[in-house]
Design brief:
The protein is built from 6 helices and 5 strands. The protein has a 5-stranded antiparallel sheet. The longest helix has 35 residues. It starts with a helix and ends with a helix.
């Protein structure tokens, strides 16, 4: 079997993973312990994120003619891909949080919802709360005025009842 035939399934796997992804983050992961890497992989798996180390040449072939093509310029050294199909900011948040414990791990760049972001852009994405947090805040802000109105009406009713009792 030729080398090209052996590499094609890996390239196809990468291309398949990035095809409908909400976000693809390129991660430089050198200098971390096995325990730290296991912890990072566990956090990614729990969030439903595909995190895998691939050869740079394989990623380069898979990125051709896709929105991820600009990532090819950064393929030097040991790199991994964090791919999320449903939460666009989850990989950036998890890696950013993990990088506080392991400063040698860093996000190089990413493609989120078809748009390329450099290192600073991906870091900014990491600060965006998850969808669930944002929905919770929205619900809280919607409920707040209604709750305040109900509290005021209740106090007025109690005051009227106290006046009537006197």
């Amino acid at each position: 079997m030729a080398k090209v035939e052996l590499k094609k399934p890996v390239v196809d796997e990468i291309a398949g993973n990035i095809k409908d992804a909400e976000s693809v983050i390129l991660v430089h992961y050198s200098g971390i312990t096995v325990e730290a890497d296991t912890e990072l992989r566990k956090a990614m798996r729990e969030a439903g994120i595909t995190y895998k180390v691939y050869k740079n040449t394989m990623m380069n072939f898979a990125f051709k003619d896709t929105p991820c093509e600009p990532l090819s310029e950064l393929l030097e050294g040991p790199n991994a891909l964090a791919i999320s199909k449903n939460d666009a900011t989850a990989p950036a948040r998890i890696i950013s949080e993990f990088a506080k414990k392991a400063p040698t791990v860093k996000m190089l760049a990413g493609v989120v919802e078809g748009n390329y972001y450099d290192e600073k852009g991906v870091a900014a994405l990491a600060s965006i709360p998850s969808r669930e947090e944002l929905l919770g805040k929205l619900l809280g802000s919607i409920q707040s005025p209604v709750s305040n109105l109900a509290r005021v009406l209740n106090q007025i009713a109690e005051a009227k009842a106290a006046e009537a009792a006197e």
